[in-house]
């Protein structure tokens, strides 16, 4: 039980449409994905141009980054949507398959996007003869930027809210009933986005790109830990609730990410630092 604080913050009922011109609508969600991917792309180009960070010429070029982002955008959107359909609400979409093609109504999964992005990275690396882990390293370094913008969009949309709480900063979300709740979207934006980006950036500056797989591993571990922490404050999806003993679907899907990250880190640390041109 908790007591409702005397003063609570009410989240304004933001219009999900940022601007509309005739039949054309630009939504906050679309802006978040656009800014996140563009910022991550520009950051990746900067990393690819630095010989110091790689201990020599980078194993991929800025032009490779330009081409990869063209494949990355549809992979994020398609993987995120299909992941949500399969992991979080398969029964609903099986009954009305046309709803799958309406992502603006909500429903994207990080884990679905991650799986498809890994497949696209493997195909692109093979095509361009780029070391796979070097590509995943540079993508992982910029990924928290997109996560940050995505969680801010969740907050503006008043979705994926937190559990009921009496903390002084609790917020009443328009569609979540009268109870004040944790602004878990902001917790995720801070931990999965801002803080993870800073940690990875410091590791990059310290030379982690010279040891392939290190940034990939640290992203997987860092994201996984941050996500599980935030799941402790986030309201589970209504159609799923808690799976057992307080475990949520987000936690369950995140555990393999952490384990894979630990495995990659173990292998990366066993290999000596080598020139990027090998």
Q: Which range best describes the helical content: under 10%, 10-25%, 25-40%, 40-55%, 55-70% or over 70%?
A: 55-70%
Helix and strand run: EEEHHHHHHEHHH
Number of distinct beta strands: 4
- Beta-strand percent range: under 5%
Uncertain spans: none
Distance between the termini: 60 Å
Name the overall outline.
globular
Radius of gyration: 20 Å
Q: What can be said about the biggest beta sheet?
A: 2 strands, parallel
Q: Main sheet: which strands, in order across?
A: 1-4
Tally of alpha and pi helices: 9
Mean pLDDT: 89
Class inferred from helices and paired strands: mainly alpha
Question: Which keywords apply here?
Answer:
278 residues; mainly alpha; two-stranded antiparallel ribbon; 9 helices; globular
What does it look like?
With 278 residues, this protein is mainly α. Helix content is 59%, strand content 5%. It contains nine helices and four strands, in the order βββααααααβααα. The strands form two sheets. The protein has a two-stranded parallel sheet. It has a two-stranded antiparallel sheet with strand order 2-3.
Give me the secondary-structure topology.
Elements: E1 9-10, E2 17-21, E3 24-27, H1 28-48, H2 51-54, H3 62-87, H4 90-95, H5 110-128, H6 132-157, E4 171-172, H7 184-205, H8 214-231, H9 249-270
What is the compact description of this entry?
The chain is mostly helical. Helices cover 59% and strands 5% of the residues.
């Amino acid at each position: 039980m908790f007591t409702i604080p005397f003063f609570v913050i009410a989240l304004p009922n933001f219009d999900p449409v940022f601007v509309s011109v005739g039949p054309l609508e630009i939504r906050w969600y679309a802006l978040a994905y656009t800014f996140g991917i563009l910022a991550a792309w520009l950051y990746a180009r900067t990393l690819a141009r630095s010989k110091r960070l790689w201990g020599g010429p980078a194993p991929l070029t800025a032009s490779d980054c330009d081409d990869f982002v063209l494949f990355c955008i549809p992979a994020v959107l398609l993987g995120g949507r299909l992941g949500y359909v399969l992991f979080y609400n398969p029964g609903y979409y099986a009954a009305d398959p046309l709803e799958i093609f309406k992502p603006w109504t909500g429903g994207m999964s990080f884990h679905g996007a991650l799986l498809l992005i890994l497949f696209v990275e493997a195909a692109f690396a093979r095509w361009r003869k780029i070391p796979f882990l070097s590509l995943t390293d540079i993508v992982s370094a910029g990924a928290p930027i997109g996560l940050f913008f995505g969680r801010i969009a969740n907050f503006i949309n008043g979705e994926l809210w937190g559990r009921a709480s009496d903390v002084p900063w609790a917020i009443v979300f328009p569609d979540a009933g009268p109870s004040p709740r944790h602004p878990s979207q902001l917790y995720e934006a801070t931990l999965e986005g801002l803080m993870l980006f800073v940690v990875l950036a410091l590791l990059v500056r310290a030379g982690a790109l010279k040891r392939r797989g290190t940034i990939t591993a640290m992203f997987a571990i860092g994201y996984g830990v941050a996500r599980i922490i935030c799941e402790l404050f986030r309201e589970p999806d209504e159609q799923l609730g808690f799976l057992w003993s307080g475990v949520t679907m987000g936690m369950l899907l995140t555990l393999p990410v952490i384990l894979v990250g630990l495995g990659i880190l173990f292998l990366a640390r066993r290999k000596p630092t080598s020139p990027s041109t090998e």
